[in-house]
Amino acid sequence: MVLCRVQVTADSYLSVRMQEWASAQELLGVVAAEMEWVEPELVLVGVSRWGEKQFLQPQQYVHSLRWERLHVCRRDQTEITSRAGDSSGLRRRGLQILDLSAWDTATVLTCTDWSLFNATHEQELICYPLGRDVGSGQRGALELLLRRCNEVQLWVATAVLLCTSHHKRSQLIGQFIRIAAHCRTQRNLSSCFSITMGLNAAPVSRLSHTWEAVPGRLKKLLSELELLTDPSLNHRGYRDSLRKMASPKIPFIPLLLKDVTFIHEGNKTFRENLVNYEKMHMMADIVRLVLHCRTDHTGKGAALPEGEGPETRGCVHHLHVIESERTLFELSYSLQPRAQRPPVDRECKCRPL
Amino acid sequence: MAYAYLFKYIIIGDTGVGKSCLLLQFTDKRFQPVHDLTIGVEFGARMITIDGKQIKLQIWDTAGQESFRSITRSYYRGAAGALLVYDITRRDTFNHLTTWLEDARQHSNSNMVIMLIGNKSDLESRREVKKEEGEAFAREHGLIFMETSAKTASNVEEAFINTAKEIYEKIQEGVFDINNEANGIKIGPQHAATSATLSGSQGGQQAGGGCC
């Protein structure tokens, strides 16, 4: 399974879950259906890392990592660009999350996370922070997994900020809190962490009027989940939870990478021409942790929870994401204008205490 | 060890600019290797003296998480100072400063002291960013500026200590609400009693809300 980023408005994209061998035509079909576009004349344009553009032929394979980005446009090259905030379809799409069961939504997220986590080789986790290539094909899985962590966070923020109804927005926040809690129950610390971070993102957390309407018990639940994302004492909250949790479980990968980076940069590989085995053991511990997370005490891998009913498809399978922090803030200010700050009087800094 | 104040720092900047090396250079000399992953150990720490007072610097390194801005953002919340680092031999790391700065300003408290650091000054022959450019950027954005070399240790002490001095001055001026830990400053045990009297005059202020 791969995730393809397809730009659907000038400021947002759909992260489409596809089979690795999906063709441009299949991908277009999914995007058009998701966006409820009826135009027959759509084409995909691939933009490489270096800005080169290429029209994709219908039968051409879509290699998600080959393109920095994929755009959808009309055959005559006119773009169907508008801003996500102007699209009533996209606003509605975010609201669909309210119609689904929080448990089922968590299950879909967890299934995707598992398949990405399982596809990632331990060696990649060690080589990535060291800036070394593992060899062809192997690096892709980790990149997808990392991208996924960011996408889940942005998906939460996007859905909340695109919702213009005050009442529904509070409900949506509540729903995301439930989904995050269910992810934790499903031992998916990755999505649990990401959703909590998404709710804590400044454009969302500043919406004080919206938060006032979120029920107290859900806010209490969120504050429990926030212990996971609190970075104090080198992310003690998260590390404790991960350690206590039975396997199989999905760790939050960015923190694993941070640890590898610190082990690598904080310790010399050689000392007086001798290999620093202590460092190697620390690296090995990380690999063991990953392997341990993947299997239960009998050595079996994760049994994926069932229940990807058709009703959970769409908005949870293919996450809609606004990436630009600036756009997210603009949406946030349109929902709740900035409080007028009193002008900062430089001189008052020097007032006597 | 007893300290009068504890300042929390965060080091930010692109991958490979030498953030961890700066931290190691600054802390390694007197302390145990800081990159201990044991649960409960804070990242890097060192004691310095300013104005005859012991100040503990606690430094949060963001190495390895450059593409996860949200983790970095969670570090801003409790930081009094930030070292924004670029590599003088890589123009792109200089070009990205605006994004980093915007992010820092957006997510930190408004009084956070930011020091701009052009690292790898030992690699003069490969220099791509002139010192004057760094100075101009700093002037334009109201930052303190220094070029350092984590390799030769040149200016590393000064970078951390000058930032601390600036924070200390702000405390003296009453800009920081030192009783609000979200500002990244903690008062040491022997100081706690005297500071309680200060809190009254600053009451009602919110973190990041400016000074009046």
Overview of the structural elements:
The complex is a heterodimer of chains A (353) and B (212). Chain A has 353 residues and is an alpha+beta fold. Helix content of chain A is 53%, strand content 11%. Chain A contains 14 helices and eight strands. Chain A has helices spanning 24-35, 88-99, 102-119, 122-130, 138-162, 166-185, 189-200, 202-205, 208-212, 216-229, 232-244, 253-266, 277-294, 325-335, and strands at 2-9, 12-18, 42-47, 53-55, 69-74, 270-271, 274-275, 319-322. In chain A, a hairpin with a 5-residue loop joins strand 3 (42-47) and strand 4. In chain A, helix 12 packs antiparallel against helix 13 (277-294). Chain B has 212 residues and is an alpha/beta fold. In chain B, strands 1, 2, 3, 4, 5, 6 and 7 form a seven-stranded mixed β-sheet that branches. Helices cover 34% and strands 21% of the residues of chain B. The interface between A and B is large, with 43 and 40 residues.
